[in-house]
Specification:
Blueprint: H1 2-28, E1 31-33, E2 45-51, H2 56-70, H3 72-75, E3 78-83, H4 88-93, E4 101-106, E5 109-113, H5 119-127, H6 146-170, H7 176-205, H8 209-264
Parallel strand pairs: 1-3, 2-3
Antiparallel strand pairs: 2-4, 4-5
Length: about 280
């Protein structure tokens, strides 16, 4: 009796270990992407699914996606998935607006899969290279572009704000309108500060026309005053020269008048002419 119980226990342990190994193998066939390792899909060929645990369509898609993961070696591709609830930044980076969303990625070139989601269609999409007929995502919407990187930051920020909103209602007991009022006031204050900074930067690099006109007028006035000062100095020099010339002329006239008066004076001695021997 004890022997049969021991055999039964060993059988159960072996069955559990086998089932765990099967589940691990099934799980490892599909790579899980997060915001820290999503760059791995930029190398090689990938089929990536964006899903959420609460999404009914995603739950229906799970067996099909696991099958595609088991077929990845024969198809020569890699298979991955992204949980948008854990990685909201990636949902913003890839502009995920519906779930599940599937992307085909080939060496950093992105194409959205919009064909039927059954096993045969997915396998045929890879084997027949149907993805080559699909227009790739434009460069400005590419997940690797700067603008989509900024979009991912906004999505992460929205997730943070949502967590704060839930904390204000659950932990502090605030009503919904109270939480919204706090966010509205904070948004107004931050918007005003940001607008003030932007205006200051614009005024620094491109001052308004009125300020430019005032600066130009001051420069013009300063140049005109300097010119007037120079002309006044020139006029003063000319006046000094004229005064000197007038003084010299008056002195010469005085000397000539003195000589003439001396010559006409009766007391002046006349020189006698000498007689010739």
């Amino acid at each position: 009796m004890s022997r049969s119980i021991g055999v039964l226990l060993l059988y159960c342990i072996g069955l559990i270990a086998f089932s765990n190994a099967a589940v691990a193998k099934k799980t490892s066939s599909v790579d899980q992407f997060t915001e820290d390792n999503w760059n791995l899909m930029l190398t090689g060929e990938w089929m990536v699914e964006f899903y959420a645990p609460w999404c009914p369509a995603c739950k229906e898609m799970e067996p099909t996606w696991s099958y595609l993961g088991d077929m990845k070696k024969s198809l020569g591709i890699n298979v991955g998935k992204v949980d948008v609830t854990d990685s909201p930044g990636l949902s913003g980076r890839f502009m995920v607006t519906a779930l599940p969303t599937i992307y085909h990625v080939k060496d950093g070139e992105f194409r959205q899969y919009k064909s039927p989601r059954d096993r045969e269609s997915l396998v045929d999409f890879i084997k027949s290279k149907t993805w080559m007929k699909v227009e790739p995502v434009s460069s400005w919407k590419s997940p690797t572009s700067i603008q989509m990187t900024l979009m991912s930051k906004f999505f992460k920020l929205s997730q943070v704000l949502r967590a704060i909103h839930n904390q204000l209602m659950d932990d502090y007991g605030l009503p919904t309108w109270g939480s919204y009022f706090i966010f509205a006031v904070a948004t107004i204050i931050m918007g005003a500060l940001l607008g003030l900074v932007i205006v200051c930067v614009i005024d620094f690099f491109s001052p308004p026309k009125h300020a430019k006109a005032v600066v130009n007028k001051k420069r013009k006035d300063s140049s005109e005053s300097s010119q007037d000062k120079g002309s006044d100095e020139d006029e003063l020099d000319e006046n000094i020269k004229d005064d000197l010339v007038d003084e010299e002329a008056s002195d010469s006239e005085k000397q000539s008048s003195k000589k003439s008066s001396a010559a006409n004076s009766p007391n002046a001695r006349k020189r006698k002419t000498r007689k010739a021997d």
